[in-house]
Design goal:
The protein has 357 residues and is an alpha/beta fold. It has 15 helices and ten strands. Strand 9 and strand 10 form a beta hairpin. The two termini are 14 Å apart. 34% of the residues are buried.
C-alpha cells in the first residue's frame, strides 16, 4: 500500500530504467514456466545465450527470481540514464547498502540485521537461513559474506555480458516505447492528483480519498509513505504480469508498472476469478456451458436437453451471467443464451496471472 497523503507532483519522478528492464528479462529467463506469454521472446533469446553466460545466470538467479533485488531499480535521481551509467552507480554504491539489499534478495525477504558485515553471529544465521531455502541461495550467501566487493564485481560483469549477448538489442527495441509511456505519466502528474496517477498505472489498484492511500493486488502486505521518500514510476514491457513495489527503508519508493496491452485485455480481480471457478465447478452449470459452446440456445431447449426443469436452468444461467460467462439476448419472442468461450479459454491464464501478481 502507498500512502499518498500530502504528496504532490514534486514527490514523483517518472522515467525509464534499462537496469530494471534487464531485471525483468532475467526474471523471465529464470522462471520461463511462469511466463507463457514470452515463449517467442524466450525462444529467440534463450537459444543464443553463450554457455558460460547461462551458467552465470543460474548462479545469480536468486537475485531476480521470486524476490526482485532492489539494487536493480533506480536508487537515486535522475531516471532515463543508460545501462552503463546505472551499472557504474551500482559499482560506486556504499558497501553497506549494497550488502543489505543483496542479502535481502538472496534470502528472499526483507529481514532485520541485513547489514551482515557488522556481526559474525548474524552472518552465520543469514547463511543458514539461505541454505535452508536452497543450495544456490546458500552458495550466494557465502560468496556475499566472504568478499562483498568480488561478489559485486562478478554480478556487474554478468550484467554487462547480458547487455552484449541480448539486452542492448532488446533495449533499442523497447526503450523508446517505455520512454513514451514515462512521458505520458509525467504529463498526468502535471494535471492529475497523485492518487489518480498511482491508480491509473494498474487495473488492480484501489484508492481511498481520506486518507489518500492506494492499494495494489499483491501477496505481500507493506506500506510506504511517498511524502517521506519520494516515488519513482518506472514502466516495464517484460515485467508482465508483475507490478513491483519496492518500499525498502532509506530509499525512494518504486512502482515498476506494466506498459503492455492490459488496456486491451485487463486482468480480472481475484474475486472474479474465484467466482468464475466456483460457477463452473457445479456439474449442471458446467454441462450448460458444454451445450452453449456451439450455438445460442433458449431456456426451454436447454431444459429439454438436460432433462431438468426450466426454473433450474434459469437459476444456473443467472449465476453464469453474474460472472460474465454467459449473456442473454431477446430475438423476437425468444431469449437466446450465449457462452463467452474466450473467457473460459482465458480462465487458466487469469488464474496464473492472479497467483503471480
Amino acid at each position: 500500500m502507498l500512502d499518498a497523503e500530502g504528496a504532490d507532483a514534486s514527490d514523483f519522478v517518472a522515467g525509464t530504467s534499462p537496469l530494471a528492464e534487464l531485471l525483468a528479462c532475467l526474471h523471465v529467463l529464470a522462471e520461463p514456466e511462469h511466463h507463457p506469454e514470452s515463449r517467442t521472446w524466450l525462444a529467440r533469446v534463450g537459444g543464443r545465450l553463450p554457455g558460460p553466460l547461462v551458467q552465470e545466470l543460474r548462479y545469480y538467479a536468486p537475485m531476480w527470481a521470486r524476490y526482485r533485488c532492489r539494487l536493480f531499480f533506480p536508487l537515486r535521481k535522475p531516471l532515463d540514464r543508460t545501462l552503463h551509467d546505472e551499472l557504474d552507480s551500482l559499482l560506486g554504491l556504499d558497501t553497506g547498502v549494497f550488502v543489505r539489499l543483496a542479502a535481502n534478495a538472496i534470502r528472499g525477504v526483507v529481514f532485520p540485521g541485513a547489514n551482515i558485515l557488522l556481526n559474525a553471529s548474524e552472518r552465520r544465521e543469514f547463511i543458514k537461513a539461505c541454505e535452508r531455502r536452497s543450495f544456490s541461495r546458500g552458495e550466494l550467501a557465502n560468496a556475499l559474506v566472504d568478499d562483498p566487493e568480488s561478489f559485486r564485481t562478478g554480478l556487474v560483469d554478468t550484467l554487462y555480458h547480458c547487455a552484449e549477448a541480448f539486452f542492448d538489442e532488446e533495449w533499442s527495441r523497447v526503450g523508446p516505447r517505455l520512454g513514451d509511456v514515462a512521458a505520458r505519466v509525467r504529463e498526468q502528474l502535471r494535471t492529475e492528483s497523485a492518487g489518480a496517477v498511482l491508480t491509473s498505472v494498474s487495473p488492480t489498484a484501489t484508492a481511498t480519498q481520506q486518507p489518500a492511500r492506494i492499494s495494489y493486488d499483491k501477496l505481500q502486505s507493506a506500506r510506504g509513505t511517498i511524502r517521506d521518500r519520494g516515488c519513482f514510476l518506472v514502466p516495464t514491457m517484460h515485467g508482465w504480469p508483475h507490478l513491483i513495489l519496492k518500499l525498502d527503508e532509506g530509499l525512494p519508493l518504486v512502482v515498476h508498472f506494466i506498459a503492455g496491452d492490459w488496456e486491451q485485455r485487463p486482468p480480472v480481480s481475484q474475486s472474479l476469478v474465484r467466482d468464475r471457478l466456483s460457477a463452473i465447478s457445479e456439474p449442471a452449470r458446467l454441462e450448460l456451458c458444454r451445450h452453449l459452446l456451439g450455438e445460442p440456445i433458449t431456456t426451454s431447449e436447454l431444459a429439454e436437453r438436460m432433462g431438468i426443469g426450466e426454473p433450474q436452468v434459469s437459476r444456473h444461467l443467472r449465476r453464469l451471467r453474474e460472472v460474465g460467462l454467459v449473456s442473454s439476448q431477446r430475438e423476437g419472442r425468444m431469449v437466446y443464451h450465449r457462452l463467452h468461450a474466450e473467457l473460459l479459454l482465458n480462465l487458466g491464464a487469469d488464474v496464473l496471472t492472479t497467483v503471480m501478481r
